[in-house]
């Protein structure tokens, strides 16, 4: 039987209503989803949240603003808005010792959170390579083209991203504002992330740069590999198994 799922809402400091989902009891792990995705798409439907909950963890999964069941504001987004939202949720829940993890965009937010809002017990950076943190503009033009333009070749990466974006139900203006709010960490900042960190990647995933280079730059990191590329790795059941193994060993 699947673990029970709870959905709740909180109001961010700027008045935007944001959703978060929770399964299980025990040591808390906050999981952040990727761009054009949601907690349901990345964590709940693939069974990751249920596996983590049954393994003895409290799984907390916000929908980032502009995604899933969360609202968004119009106009430009402040550079730190996504980490601010995460910080506010953590404070409202009263978390003291906890793990923060994310996939792709969620991994970038997790790394920034380490610097902006205090240090979680451990980090899980999934679907992320070194260049995805130190050059946050790595795929900015690609995503903007995919959501603003048309007439891409059938087999192009832009056409694939465009289809994923349109299925997501995300607002175009909100996603452009999100993309423009992204900023890099310096290599020096990355090298000073001292929390125990799991770098978790698909074997064919170089979309956000090199996961191995990221692992090597972090002073206290391990790496694990699952099948697939950037889009398919997040759906692999072994992703949750690797997260549980990492947390229980650390």
Automatic annotation (TrEMBL):
Q: Which InterPro entries match?
A: AB_hydrolase_1 (IPR000073), AB_hydrolase_fold (IPR029058), AB_hydrolase_sf (IPR050266)
Limits of the AB hydrolase-1 domain: 28-120
Which Gene3D superfamilies does UniProt cross-reference here? alpha/beta hydrolase (3.40.50.1820)
SUPFAM superfamilies xref list: alpha/beta-Hydrolases
Q: Which UniProt keywords apply?
A: Hydrolase
- Give the top-rank taxon of the lineage listed in the UniProt record for this protein: Bacteria
Q: Which GO terms describe its molecular function?
A: hydrolase activity
Q: What's the name of the protein?
A: Alpha/beta hydrolase fold protein
